Amino acid sequence: MNIYLAIIIGSLLAAWFLGVLSDRLSARAMRPAPPEELADVFDAETYARSQAYTLASMKFSTVSETFNTLILVLAILAGGFNLLDVLVRTAGFGPLATGLAYIAALALISGVIGLPFEIYHTFVLEKRFGFNTTTPGTFVLDRIKGLVLGAVIGGALVAGLLLFLRETGPYAWLLCWGFAVLLSLGLTYVAPTWILPLFNKFTPLEEGELRGKLMAFADKAGFELSGIFVMDGSKRSTKGNAFFTGFGKRRRIALFDTLIKEMDADEIVAVLAHEVGHARLGHIKKRLATGILKAGAVFYLMSLFLDSAGLFAAFGMEHMSLYAGLVFFVLLYTPLSLALGVVANAVSRKHEFEADAFAARTTGRPDAMISALKKLSASNLSNLTPHPLTVWLEYGHPPVLARIRALAAGR
């Protein structure tokens, strides 16, 4: 058997199996009553709903992942990637246009296959538990805008990579790396002004107690903000959240309108302090540096396999091409991606604990951070007792109970 085919099929099936096993174990880890620390926000009805939501989400995940994995494995074994390549080549485009058309066609096929699951998740599952506020019109517009952005940004990225790989010789991976990093940093810089407003409305937080407390904390922490904005998160969901966008002098915080409705001013200050903690403790810089180094390693590995006849034989390809090599390498990279994802999640969970501790220390109100976490977990119907395997595989944030206990212990 082709070794590349064995690695790709094996890793796809392993990822599917781990996901299913994780869900089964988390379902068994559920308890009849909420942990004592959360009993004040999870009454019997809320706790029952959170467990029902968790189980429904697991079932949905199992069905969707099983279907997607099956389709992908069948496409590989049946020579679907070659059939698409032959079809695209009949158009008679040049090498660059053919490559863009091939990858665009794969992305479109993937989107069409996943669309029924997106519709079900949004308008059935999320609606059943009272989360969805997305209208059909908003859903359609979001998908159209996503397609346009994907075509522009993804097209620019793929075109740049293909040109460097074709024209610049054995060290093309270095130029690909630099190009991808610059494009990513550029998008991060312009996203707050040009991209995010395409999907949501951002309104400056009005003067008042909340803005005053947030600005006072930012000044105390020596953290410069270009603005504090309220985002109309309720346009799509009742779930609350907050996040930073941009970097340098363009840093701004966005608070979901749903978050403002759920929490008092001290709790929202604690949420801001947590986010500031990520910056002050160097988490953002470390994440950026790690991402850049990882991208370099990926592009170097890619350069080793792009012209591998065995890799193309695994997909039954009649022709070798740079654009197909990019796609096949992404699939070959699956096992390493899974392993690195586990490590990244572990580091992320550590950073979340540190940011929580920073918020408690700088605000002097660990109780406010605990209260904010409790409210978020209750309003989002979080799973309070995920299995350790689920946390290990999937959680970039520690389970809420672990965070509350760490804050209560003063860590």
* Biggest sheet layout: 4 strands, mixed
Number of strands: 4
Tally of individual helices:
16
Secondary structure: helix percent: over 70%
Which radius of gyration do the C-alpha atoms yield? Answer: 23 Å
Write the H/E string, N to C.
HHHHHHEHEEEHHHHHHHHH
What characteristic shape results from the CA principal axes? globular
The SS-based structural class is mainly alpha
Strand content: under 5%
For the termini, the CA-CA separation is 52 Å
Descriptive report:
There is one protein chain. With 411 residues, the protein is mainly alpha-helical. Among the domains are: 3-91 and 294-408, no CATH class; 202-262, Zincin-like. Helices cover 72% and strands 4% of the residues. The chain has helices at 3-28, 44-77, 80-89, 95-128, 136-167, 172-195, 209-220, 257-262, 265-280, 283-305, 309-314, 322-332, 334-363, 366-379, 388-394, 400-408; strands at 202-204, 227-231, 242-245, 252-256. Strand 3 (242-245) and strand 4 form a beta hairpin. The radius of gyration is 23 Å and the shape is globular. This is M48 family metallopeptidase. Belongs to the peptidase M48 family.
Quick overview:
This protein has 411 residues and is mainly alpha-helical.
Secondary-structure topology with pairs:
Elements lengths: L2 H26 L15 H34 L2 H10 L5 H34 L7 H32 L4 H24 L6 E3 L4 H12 L6 E5 L10 E4 L6 E5 H6 L2 H16 L2 H23 L3 H6 L7 H11 L1 H30 L2 H14 L8 H7 L5 H9 L3
Question: Which features would summarize this protein structure in a list?
Answer:
411 residues, single chain, 4% strand, 16 helices, mainly alpha
